[in-house]
Amino acid sequence: MSRPQSEAEYLARLVPASVSATSSRRTVLKGALGAGAALGGAGLLAACGGSSSGGTDATAGASGSAAATGGEVTFGSNASDEIPKKVVQALADGFKAASGTTVKINTQDHNTFQENINNYLQGKPDDVFTWFAGYRMRFFASKGLAGDVSDVWKNLTGFTDGFKSASTGDDGKQYFVPSSYYPWAVFYRKSVWAEKGYAVPKTLDELKTLAGQMQKDKLDPIAFGDKDGWPAMGTFDVLNMRINGYQFHIDLMAHKVAWDDPKVQKVFSTWAELLPFHQADPLGRTWQEAAQAVQNKKAGMYLLGLFVTQEMTANLDDIDFFTFPEIDSTIGADALDAPIDGFMKAAKPKDDARANALLTWLGGKDAGAVYAKTDPTTLIANSEVDTSGYTALQKKSAELVGSAKNIAQFLDRDTRPDFASTVMIPAIQTFLKNPKDVQGLCKSIEGQAKTIFTS
């Protein structure tokens, strides 16, 4: 596949058509309900939700017109970290100033929100809530647990066809309003690398040599924390795309190839070779704690999303990154994870007009300007937003994403939510504790995948 010739062409590739495009609503619904039962903890999220009565302000149009002013709209948020939490509050304040409507924010721990989203949506969810593009959006839309926001999109400008595609369900309707996106790369402190004379590795062998030198220099080569279950998925993604290519990665997420395929075993075997260069005991460390190792010059580098710089705001001018190096020269190193974040609507919000009005505002350039001003650790989706204030890291990130040949949304967004949560998180954490039995691990994953994907 050739490089995208325009932003629209690049964004059109963000949603892989091969991921469950043929799944029936009945199959998706059945699998998701099973996932909800397994995940449990419904009360953690449902307790913060609004009514599910589905009442609508009759004075407002379906798209949320100016008539839907005053009153209150509820907002379920996974933005529990400091900077994202400030962004959500700033957005709520901006919407109230523009419309007179108060946004009641119900913030939950990011991982709690993510792990219990199925039960949350089947209970009494908030009118509007934070979520992700990709399979995880389409999954809940197919279940009838998300509200159609096609009318909202009629009033949105500044989004390419690619972003609209990333917001569209299997039925052709829109269920998502994008806000931001960010690449995954390997981050490091420039001052440390300059002092030690380190050079950016171009191949896996060069990366191993560099990591060995860092160990001699009394540094943990690769900061690493997987207490929350999802960060290590990024390592699997990039190794899989470097070893087997983007399309194999997408087909694997859709279970079009088996998890005990020798190509998958090679991914884990390669990862096992790199584990001695990672921080020890990652299951007891959050990504934020791992980031502090780079911030405090205790670790040499860290593979994570651009949001990692939330933990390094005092030294942003000293932070740089490179894309993970190639492993197979015939595949190269021009595929990466670059997930899209944004907002969705409950299937039956207590106030549909105000929910639509909020979503329309959140998708506009005024909200984008608030986002850009408040958070220097992400990229803004709306092209009408003034990004002249981007930091050097944001500019370089935008260039990296724009030059990528293929874009993935991230493992737990490109596959079934129940498979990601109930199979891949424990499987990867088992691997991190004991990386010796790769064949047995892959066989176990495949057995569970067959059950889930054929349910």
Task: Give a nutshell description of this structure.
The chain is of the alpha/beta class and 455 residues long. Helix content is 46%, strand content 12%. The protein has two domains: 7-182 and 339-390, Periplasmic binding protein-like II (D-Maltodextrin-Binding Protein, domain 2), CATH 3.40.190; 184-337 and 416-453, D-Maltodextrin-Binding Protein, domain 2, CATH 3.40.190.
Which tags fit this structure?
12% strand, D-Maltodextrin-Binding Protein, domain 2, six-stranded mixed β-sheet, 2 domains, 455 residues, globular, disordered N terminus, alpha/beta, 21 helices, four-stranded mixed β-sheet, 46% helix
Topology overview:
Blueprint: H1 7-12, H2 25-39, H3 42-46, E1 72-77, H4 82-99, E2 102-107, H5 110-115, H6 117-122, E3 128-132, H7 135-142, H8 150-153, H9 161-166, E4 177-181, E5 184-189, H10 190-196, H11 204-216, E6 220-222, H12 231-244, H13 246-253, H14 262-274, H15 287-295, E7 299-305, E8 319-322, E9 335-337, E10 340-345, H16 352-362, H17 365-374, E11 379-380, H18 392-403, E12 406-408, H19 411-414, H20 417-433, H21 438-453
Parallel strand pairs: 1-2, 1-3, 6-7, 9-12
Antiparallel strand pairs: 3-10, 4-10, 4-11, 5-7, 5-8
Helix pairs in contact: 2-20, 4-17, 12-13, 12-14, 20-21
